[in-house]
Amino acid sequence: MFSLIFTRRFSMAHRLIADPAGKCAIPHGHNEQVIARLQPVAPQRLDGRANMVAPFEQAKARWHRFVDDRVDHAFQLGESDPMINWFRAHEPQRLGRLLVTPGDPTTEMLAACLMAKLNAFLAADGNDLRCVELTVEETPTNAVTLAGDPADVLPARAGAGWWRRADDSINDLDPVPVALSLAVARR
Asked: Which of 23, 25, 36 minimizes the C-alpha distance to 71?
């Protein structure tokens, strides 16, 4: 079976607070690479004319735009990170640049969320393709690969988050009025 493989680089920042003693509890960044492997939903023989699974540009355009415009230079935080309330109170205009995950934004979690998002895009666009494997290279020496269905590995409480929608969202934060945000931040 043929696979179409697309690679995109992006920069990001995150922090992991589940292990407060760990060095990753301090905000820091990485230059990452995401590699997606797409396959036809229903494999067919080449047609003897165009001889392609799908035009590369058609298959990758929306995905690359999403990575470039939304994921690149986003600040990845877990849904319970207190920094979210800080942004609500002090820089609400930046809430749209927070990529929020269920639990810590580890490389494993990012791979699952991005794979689910890509599959939502592919389904909504009517492509006969699906992402069957997604790799996130956190550093040149560390990577995580997810093969299969991201629903099988996302936390059960994850529900219908932004990663399941075929829109450009990277969080489900509701803008909170500044006065309410300040009251929450003072607690």
From this structure: 36
Q: Please provide residue 149's backbone torsions phi and psi, each rounded to the nearest 5 degrees.
A: -100, 120
Q: How far apart are CA 74 and CA 27, in angstroms?
A: 12
Tell me the residue range of the domain where 16 lies. 4-186
Each residue of 67-93: pLDDT tens digit? 999 999 999 999 999 999 999 999 999
Query: pTM of this prediction?
Result: 0.89
Q: The CATH number of the domain where 177 resides is what?
A: 3.30.479.10
Q: Is 77 exposed, middle or buried (0-12, 13-18, 19+ CB in 10 A)?
A: buried
Cβ-in-10-Å burial (0-12, 13-18, 19+) of 128 comes to middle
Q: How far apart are CA 155 and CA 150, in angstroms?
A: 10
Instruction: Please tell me the total count of domains within the chain.
Output: 1
